[in-house]
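I am writing to request your help with a piece of structural work I have in hand. Here, with my thanks, is the record as I have it:
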Amino acid sequence: MSACGASSARRRSEVAVVTLNFNGAAFLRPMIESLAPQLTSAQARLIVFDNGSSDGSDRQVEELFGSEEWFSVVRSPVNLGFAAGANAAMAGLDEEIVVLANSDTVFRPGSLSALLDGLRRHPGAALAGPKLLWPDGSLQPSMRDFPFPWALLKEHLPVLSRSSAKHSDHAAERRVDWVVGAVMAIRTEAFRRVGGFDTDYFFYHEETDLQYRFRRAGMDVWFIPGSEVVHIEGGSASALFGRETTLRYISGKLRFLRKHGGPLDAMCFRLLMSVMHLGRAAAGIVRPRKAAEDSRFSRGYCSKALMELWDFSSRK
């Protein structure tokens, strides 16, 4: 690892905001610009952990913000993935709270302090997450139930979906199973107590696994709607995986179920998702326009999803 920053004697901070960057030239600068006015009032500093970028995005923001005392860059020569990269970025930090934020996020004014205040209001909380918004300002589902088969079935059935966390009202501050990991305020001591992120997850559902282990250790996760962050979902992942990033969720869920579920959970998940993707493929055949508008209804996408679901060689 190599590190560089504006000042060898950085000011004392109570909070470290860490963003992992991989070829994020389209997103990283706006993300930092949205945070810059909020860092001082929150007594926070920003660390860009560059995960082996080749597009010059790390150098670009260093040129723009390198003179700021709250800014620093740490570089890995290779892409470690999110879990291992976050573990490495947090390893030497002495701040009580670390905010992990994707590079494809934009913090609305006051959102950083609102998130930190929300975490501090709940002494039993190990982690808190904000309300996520799409770029047009509409709600992006920001919380979930743990992805065991019954919860996933409830989430996808219209009659039951309103009782799932994903489709529930996002107006109230509440304790949840897990929050979407685009932005997470984490108590550093709690993070280290459970061993950090599981590096068997390269990308997707590492935050689900972490928050499940918090729950098992008797700690809470809170959703803080007073903090609002715009999230260009898939922006970070598309730099790595291309257009069909959502297929990566499948292997992450399977790993979670094999680790934390019973012997039938992974099989039930495979069967449930197979029925869903076969149904989508059929709908796309009947309504070609639907498949053209949403690739998840195309035969190509559904075929790849089924291959991912039933790839027995991926069972490690």
